[in-house]
Amino acid sequence: MEKQIREYEETIVKLKRARNSLLNVSKLPPEVLGHIFRWNTILKDDFGGLEEGSHNFLLVCHHWFEVASSTPEVWNFWGNTTKDWTRWCHRPGTTPLDLVLDLNSNDVPFEFTRFDALQGRADQDTIRRIHLRAADPGLLRSIIASLTSAPGLFRPIGVESFILRNESDELVDISDFFAHNRFPKLQRLDLIHCTIALALIPSRVVTLTTLELDLYSIDPTPSIPQVLSVLTSNPALRKVSLFGYATPDGGGGRKSLPRASPCHLKELKLAGDPQEVFGILSRLDLPRQMDSLDITLYECPAEEILQTVGPQIRDYLRHRGKSQNGLGLFLSSGYDVEFHVGDMGRIGFSALALARMNTFMKFTIKLNQTPSKGRLEKVTLDLIAHVPREEVVYLRAYGKPVAVDVISAQLPNLKGLHFERAPLPIIFPKANPDGDGEIFPSLQYILLDRVAVSRSDGWEPLVTFLLLRAGSGRRIHSLVIVGPCRTRPNVTQRMVQEFRLIP
Fold it and tell me: Distance between CA atoms of 150 and 249, rounded to whole angstroms?
């Protein structure tokens, strides 16, 4: 009886497979069907896992299961948790593996014990990406140790991307991993809160296009020449992010410091105290046209802005060359000062379009103490003064900026103003009938985004400004006010050509 049941079951399975073979989708060539399956299991981002049910196509029919089983690319990802790794790591294969782990302190602790599978993959050189992010330094050390060659060996491995982001307070040392391996294909290196002998990198890695280093964690503390050596040995670099401290020199004095010329660099991000940042920046011969220069300064005295930051902005803009379509500025001042410069590019001028510009330079300055209002105003004006004033056509300001009449003389060609969360009386102070009609003679567009209107004056500062402009023959083209208004400003077509109120 049992034998007959098994025979009937086998017959039913064969009939179902025959029926499925008649479906249109079953007529697709296996290589096409396998390509579709591959896209369903592709790595979405640096640490992203597969969506739930990504392998459900295995259950559709026997034909799909066979095609998927013979498509190596479907199995090049073990998931991004140790639980996923335990489930999938037993599958043999020579397809390049994307080894991804994304654990945080809120994850349920889970032990991974199949380090032999990692060692086997490393020995076969079938790992394409190593992306690890976790708050468990012990687990990270075990994984890296499994991927490291035995002492005395020195082998090349074909890893193309290596990201290690240690989110614990305890450092993870990866010096042995770099001491015993060479990386002829490595394009991306991203190390956060782990320590390494930085001198190892130039001799092990020469093909980088993306580099991110947390210099604070590196032991021994790297020197600026060592940092520059990493950049010089990787001439294809396009994106560099460096955070932290580097000693000024190796003992030979600042005059002996080398220079680096990363001619393909498109994005540079530096963060640290002013001496650290400018110590590195001053030794770089940057390309003229970069997409982004992003500088963050910690514990910066206000005097440093006046003496160093302003001249750095001036020199970089001169090196970059004249903007063809005009420059845009963004400034925000308080305990921190933000100053961005961008190219207006092909953005058409309208009040709503003023919220966008192609930013290519950012300075974020975290002051060591809160400056007085007068001191902060001087700092802001000094930064603006180092920008070629005739090229500036757009200004966006957040918070309590310098009053319009104060900066008007510095920006004679300004076409657009965008103020966000700023007090209206500071934007438009009490008008002087003999002079306010000349404020920003080229101004055409104004965008006011959630500005603060006083109960006593209401919208009078704005209305007075618009009346004076209209009376002088320079009527504003477009005015847009965004945010809830207790009272509607009494703006007429005589004052502006276009007026929009957006709640």
Answer: 34
